[in-house]
Amino acid sequence: MMAQPHEAMPAGTGPRAGATLRLDAISKRFGSVTAVNRVSLEIPAGSFVSLLGPSGSGKTTTLNMIAGFLRPDEGELYFDGRPVANVAPNKRDIGMVFQSYALFPHMTVYDNVAFPLRARGGLDGAAIDRRVREQLEMVRLADFGERFPKQLSGGQRQRVAMARAVVARPSVLLLDEPLGALDKNLRDQLQGEIKKIHRSVGSTFVYVTHDQSEALNLSDLVVVMREGRIEQASDPRTIYQAPETPFVAEFMGGANLLPATVASCSAAVLVLDLHMGGRVLAPASGSKPAEGEEVSLLVRPEDVLIAEKPPADPEVMSLSCSVLDVAYFGDTIRLSLDASGTILTARVPARGSAGLSAGQQVLFCWRQGSARVLRRRRYKP
Ligand SMILES: Nc1ncnc2c1ncn2[C@@H]1O[C@H](COP(=O)(O)OP(=O)(O)OP(=O)(O)O)[C@@H](O)[C@H]1O
Ligand SMILES: [Mg+2]
């Protein structure tokens, strides 16, 4: 197909490779608070990275340093290998989306989305019109161009904000809890749209959230932050299935963490004395603890098997406990159990467990290989 003269591809309007970001030991202090503490991270070009962590863990501060709104007290940031310390925010080729939509209230949806293209210059009216219409189509608001922001629902406004942020195809898009103000159903729906937008624009996305399932669903890389530091940065499966610390295990969903002392360790198997009583075997994965070390044994609720009789299989570990509560969720039930004063959680298929009720004595079982030994993290001062 022949390109129309005014449609000759202007720089930066088609899908493009996003920038590679490198954070090299960046820190930020506010008075006596160290909001970000020597954070180092490599973000591959075009990837989707989530910064996840409790309130006050330094997510927004990190994002603001990437954007250039804040300057690190120490360390350096690189975009595609170039240091950006002295590059102003508007020269970093980034787009931003916040929890509050920050649309221009006096402009129509169309003009809001056209704004970054007009501000940047270099495109004629017809090319801008084509880009804006394409972008509105992508966020399913093709018929909303003439409306003003106040005439839209929350979800629609957030889609306009997304469209405005990516229309100029920035090499990096920074999103700070963009779905934070929306209800659960809308969040789920917009997650799907954000994924699609990421695929079609190709920018590197850095997404701040404190919603675990959102981070798992969207990201190539999940970065769990705690008190200004990175606790773990891994792909979603690893961060859920192989958390490195008790903090990450608990933060990423239901976790039974059984405190234990290492009695002995061989190549493949650890023998643990549970503080609640009982000796169990556990797989030796990751970095190996020493004999006598205090560790936590992680058993995910969905890996628990409930039995009445002691299991014959030596691979299956068991603890006696009593049922405290049975919560019904249709497909599964969640059991709260008391094992010598430690409260445990199990999630088992509802089918076949109709007989379980509070007060009953049962065995809390798991396959040795499904558990994981977590060491405590020690930070360098
Ligand atoms: N401008 C500021 N002045 C003083 N302290 C600040 C400032 N900005 C952030 N902080 C502090 O730095 C720490 C990290 O804040 P930050 O906003 O990065 O957290 P967050 O992870 O984004 O939290 P949330 O999930 O609540 O948005 C907090 O203790 C916060 O109080
Ligand atoms: Mg924040």
Mind sketching the topology for me?
Blueprint: E1 21-30, E2 33-43, E3 48-52, H1 59-67, E4 74-79, E5 82-83, E6 94-97, H2 109-120, H3 125-138, H4 154-166, E7 172-176, H5 184-201, E8 204-209, H6 212-218, E9 221-226, E10 229-234, H7 236-241, H8 246-251, E11 256-265, E12 269-274, E13 279-283, E14 294-299, E15 305-307, E16 316-328, E17 332-339, E18 342-349, E19 361-367, E20 372-375
Parallel strand pairs: 3-8, 3-9, 6-7, 7-8
Antiparallel strand pairs: 1-2, 1-4, 4-5, 9-10, 11-12, 11-14, 12-13, 14-20, 15-19, 16-17, 16-19, 17-18
Helix pairs in contact: 2-3, 2-4, 3-4, 4-5
The structure holds adenosine-5'-triphosphate and magnesium ion.
Adenosine-5'-triphosphate is lined by residues 30, 33, 35, 53, 55-61, 210.
Give keywords:
single chain; 381 residues; alpha+beta; Rossmann fold; OB fold (Dihydrolipoamide Acetyltransferase, E2P); six-stranded mixed sheet; five-stranded antiparallel sheet; 8 helices; disordered N terminus; binds adenosine-5'-triphosphate; binds magnesium ion
